[in-house]
């Protein structure tokens, strides 16, 4: 086998091992806040994002809001281009990708077998991100997103890391800004934590409210309290 063939096989193996079955389960998990992968950079050793070399040839298209506040989201390559891997979150609009307190919002649901949800510890909702299931060439892929019920998140954007090859990927690919709709009103305590999940003050207030609810339930024997209107 000549040198060129060896290099080709090596590159193929790197590509297959890098993103063949989607971003790993721990891509957006962390033990300590300072260890968060806030920049959404894949663990492709010896590589850097292509953002400064070539503009990303990809768009995130967000459909109209449905009756439950959800939206169909599509990642689409420009004509003649393609991608193999991706990871997408919903986050606060125009918020720097590397901000340590950048939240991830809502629940993603695959529309077909080409994508799979990933749970993120920073997520507001059951699931905080979505990724691919295979490393075949793709020109577009769609999935559904639902916001937390009964909570006005303010302006949001969908942000993506898009991978074309092991050493060719782009970060911070963004959708247009999505304006809030649906629930409008004062944010209850839990909704405030949704919007600002890393606030120590809000975390303490939520824990205190939960303890108060638990105490009231124990006194009553039955019944329930709610954080939705706790202020």
TrEMBL record:
Residues of the signal peptide: 1-18
Compartments where found: Secreted
Top-level taxon of the source organism: Eukaryota
UniProt keyword Secreted, yes or no: yes
Key word Acetylation present: no
UniProt xrefs under InterPro entries: Ferric-chelate_Red/DefProt, Reeler_dom, Reeler_sf
Main location group: secreted
GO CC entries: extracellular region; membrane
Keywords associated with the record: Antibiotic, Antimicrobial, Immunity, Innate immunity, Secreted, Signal
Domain Reelin: 13-197
One GO term (biological process): innate immune response
Family per similarity comment: Belongs to the insect defense protein family.
Protein name: Defense protein 3 isoform X3
Organism: Crassostrea virginica
Gene label: LOC111137996
């Amino acid at each position: 086998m000549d040198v060129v063939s060896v290099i080709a096989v090596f590159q193929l193996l790197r590509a297959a091992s890098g993103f063949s079955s989607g971003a790993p389960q721990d891509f957006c998990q962390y033990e300590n806040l300072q260890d968060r992968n806030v920049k959404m950079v894949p663990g492709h050793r010896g590589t850097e994002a292509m953002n400064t070399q070539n503009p990303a040839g990809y768009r995130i298209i967000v459909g109209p809001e449905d009756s439950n506040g959800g939206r169909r989201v599509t990642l689409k390559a420009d004509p003649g281009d393609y991608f193999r891997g991706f990871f997408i979150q919903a986050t606060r609009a125009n918020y720097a990708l590397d901000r340590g307190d950048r939240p991830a919002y809502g629940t993603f649901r695959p529309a077909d077998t080409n994508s799979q949800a990933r749970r993120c510890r920073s997520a507001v909702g059951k699931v905080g991100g979505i990724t691919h299931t295979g490393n075949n060439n793709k020109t577009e892929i769609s999935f559904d997103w639902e916001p937390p019920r009964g909570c006005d998140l303010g302006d949001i954007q969908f942000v993506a890391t898009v991978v074309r090859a092991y050493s060719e990927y782009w970060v911070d690919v963004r959708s247009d800004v999505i304006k809030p709709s649906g629930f409008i009103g004062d944010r209850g305590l839990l909704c405030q934590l949704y919007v600002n999940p890393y606030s120590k003050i809000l975390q303490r207030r939520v824990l205190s409210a939960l303890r108060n609810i638990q105490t009231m339930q124990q006194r009553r024997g039955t019944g329930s309290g709610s954080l939705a209107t706790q202020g």
